Amino acid sequence: MKIKEEKLYVILICLLAAFGFLGVFGGIMEPDSALYASIAKNNILYNDWLNLYVRGADWLDKPHLPFWIAALFFKVFGISAFAYKLPSFLVGLLGAWYVYQLAKSIYTDRIGLRSVVIFLSALHVLISTFDVRAEIYITTFTLASIYHYYRAHQSSVVHLVAGSFFTACAIMVKGIFVLIPVFAGFIIYWLFTKQYKQLIKIKWWLAIVLIFVFISPELYSLYHQFDLHPEKVVFGSRGVSGLKFFFWDSQFGRFFNSGPIKGSGDKSFFLHTTLWAFLPWSVLLYTAVVNLFKKKNRAELADESIILWASAAVTFLLFSFSKFQLPHYILIVFPQFAIITALYMEKLEGKPLKVFYTVHTVIYVLVFILLGVIAVFSGFEHAYWMISALLLIAISAFVFFKEKSVSAIVGRNAAISIGLMSFLYLFFYPALLKYEGGMQAGQWLRANYPEAKPAVLLNVDAYSFDFYANAEVKYLMSYEDLDKAVATRDLVIYVQDTELQNIKSKYKTEVLKSFENYHITKLSGKFLNANTRAAVLEHFYLVKLH
User: Fold this and answer.
1) CA distance 511 to 112
2) For 33-75, how does the pLDDT look when each residue is reduced to its tens digit (9 = 90+)?
3) Residue 216 burial class via C-beta count within 10 angstroms: exposed 0-12, middle 13-18, buried 19 and up
4) Contact 408/402 with Cβ under 8 angstroms?
5) CA angle 445, 451, 455 (to 5 degrees)
6) What is the torsional sign of CA 284, 290, 292, 296?
7) Which residues, in sequence order, are CB contacts of 389 under 8 Å at separation 6+?
8) Residues in contact with 123: Cβ distance below 8 Å, sequence separation at least 6, in sequence order
C-alpha cells in the first residue's frame, strides 16, 4: 500500500526523533561536552549563577546561557548526563519545528516536512545529539530568530519581540556574531528586491534595542565577574574586560586571529567538512547550490528564498575566511541547507531522479557496509548483534523504498540515519566511553567511595572526572599543592601513570583502581583496531593518600 508523501514524512520524523532520544541516555564525552557539563555542575555546587569556573579558576570563553540551561535541568533532575543532554535534545526538536514553519511559510507543507526529515537525519545533527556542546542551541535559536523576523516583516509586533528574544538567546550561546546569520539574509533580500525603506523602519531598530535588553543578564554577569575585578588574572594578564572579550575578542579576535584564542584557517575547510557532516544529503545539497547559478532556476524561486540563500552563503563565507575553524560550527546553517535541499528535490524527475536514486543507493549500501566493517574491526562487545540490527534496518528500508521516487530517496536516507543512530548510540559510543578514563574513574569513585575528596594532579584534561566524581574536584597544579592537600581526610587523586612512581616515593599511597584512557573524539586506525588498541592507550589511577 502506497503511503501519501506527507504522511510518510511525518512517520519518518517521528522515527528519527524516537531514535534520537536514545542519545540522551549515553555518557558525556571529552573534552568540550565534559567541560561544559562540569561548568554547569559548578554553578550548582557553588550556588553561583553569575560566575563560570573551570578547575577552580575564573573561565572566560563561552557565554552563559548553555550553562544556565544545563544547571536548571540539574536542579530539576539532579546532576547527571541525562539532565545535561535532555535540554539540548528538546531544543533540537524545537529547531525541527522551526525548520517546518519557515519552509512551509515560504514554500509548501510538503517541502516543510521534507526539510525536517533532512535536518534531523544529517550526520552532524546525530553526532551533536550525543556529544552535546552548544551547537544545537545556537542552530535552533538562530533559526527561530529568522522565522520570527520573517513573520515580523509582515507587520507582527509579537513576532518582532519573539525574534529579538531568540536572537538574544543565540548571542548568549555563541556571541555577537550571530547577528550576521540572522540579519544578513534580510538585508540582502531588501537590497535585491529594492525595499530600501525597510533599512530605516523603526521596528527593525526597535528589534536591535530589544536584543540588547534581552542580553543584559549576560552583560551583567561578565561585568560582575571580570570588569569589576581587574585584579583577576585571565589569559595570563590582569585587567581583562569580560565585556570587551564578549563584543570583540571572542568573535572578531578569532576571525582576525588577534584575540587570546587563536587558530589557523583553511578557506576550503567547510567545503569538505559539509561533504561528510551533511551526509547523506551533501551530494544533493551541492547540486542544488550549483543549480542556483542557472538564471532560469533562480527566476522560478520565490523572492523570499533570498533570505535563506543569503543567510547560509554569508555565514558559510564568514566561517571559511575565519582563522579559527571547527567542524561543528557549520551546524548553524543546516536548517537552511535542509530547506534548500528539500526545495531542489521538489522538481526532481526523469533522468536526474534516476541518477540521484542510483547515487543514494550506492551511498546507502556503502554506509551500512562501512558500519559493519567497523563493528567487526573494532572487536567491541555485541558486534554481531549490532550487525544483525543493521542488516534488518537496511533490508527492510531497501525493500520498502524500492520505487524510483523522491520519497524513496528520502526514506532510504532516513533509514541510513536510523542505522547510524542505532550504531552510534547503542553500540559504538558506549564502547568508546569505556576508554574515557575520567568518566570511568568518576563513576567508580561515586559508587565505591562516596565520601572521597577527589582531586586531579597536574594539568591533566580530566573534565569528565570533574563532572562524574561525587563532589567538587580540586585541581593540584604542582607537588607543592599536593603537599598542602595531603593532610585532607579521604583525599583521592586522579593521576597519570607517568607520575605514579613519583607519588609512591614521596607519600604513603594506596592504588584503588586503574583505568585505560584514550582521547575518544580523535579516533585513529590503531585505536579502532582491536589488535593494536592497547599500544595507544594511556593509563590513569585513583590513588588514596594516607
Assistant:
1) 58
2) 999 999 999 999 989 999 999 887 888 889 999 999 999 999 9
3) exposed
4) yes
5) 60
6) negative
7) 422
8) 276, 277, 278, 279, 280, 417, 420
